[in-house]
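Colleagues,

For the teaching module next term, I've prepared a clean inverse folding example: a structure given as tokens, and then the sequence designed for it. I'd like students to try predicting residues themselves before seeing the answer, so please don't circulate the second half yet.
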């Protein structure tokens, strides 16, 4: 059976919000893809409701892309406590945490509906399920809690 790294993590030991490198994988041509755990809220204590999570996803698809070279994708965990971030190449968890903090700060303080891409029936698979209000409140709480670059050390 394949070993899924995410299920090996002891979710009772981590201190969210944090950025954690899950692993780096090298392709046959030597290219590296990195997989990060962007844990926004504490597992089994909190979960971001889908509308806010969905709006955060769409908005950081632009904001994180602008800040992280080699961005491939950032998509929510089914448990709704955070996101996977996939990138080409290696980035320090400090750099990813800084980019995430800037992006969530923007959502909390400045984002308007114009900053949320893909909210039409043609551009989204569930366009009714967005909430900028929720995205802003959760982003504010996450940034205020401090985004650590070490999953076991609170910032
Ligand atoms: N998670 C995607 C957006 C899908 S709607 C991205 O580009 O990061």
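(Answer key — instructors only)
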């Amino acid at each position: 059976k394949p070993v899924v790294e995410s299920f090996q993590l002891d979710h009772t030991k981590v201190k969210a919000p944090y950025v954690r490198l899950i692993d780096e994988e090298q392709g046959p041509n030597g290219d590296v893809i990195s997989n990060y755990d962007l844990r926004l809220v504490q597992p089994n204590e909190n979960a971001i409701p889908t509308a806010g999570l969905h709006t955060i996803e769409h908005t950081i698809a632009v904001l994180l892309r602008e800040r992280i070279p080699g961005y491939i994708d950032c998509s929510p965990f089914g448990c709704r406590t955070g996101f996977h971030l996939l990138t080409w190449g290696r980035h320090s968890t400090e750099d990813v945490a800084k980019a995430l903090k800037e992006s969530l700060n923007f959502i909390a303080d400045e984002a308007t509906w114009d900053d949320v891409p893909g909210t039409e029936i043609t551009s989204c698979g569930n366009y009714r399920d967005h909430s900028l209000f929720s995205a802003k409140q959760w982003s504010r709480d996450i940034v205020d809690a401090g985004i650590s670059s070490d999953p076991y050390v609170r910032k």
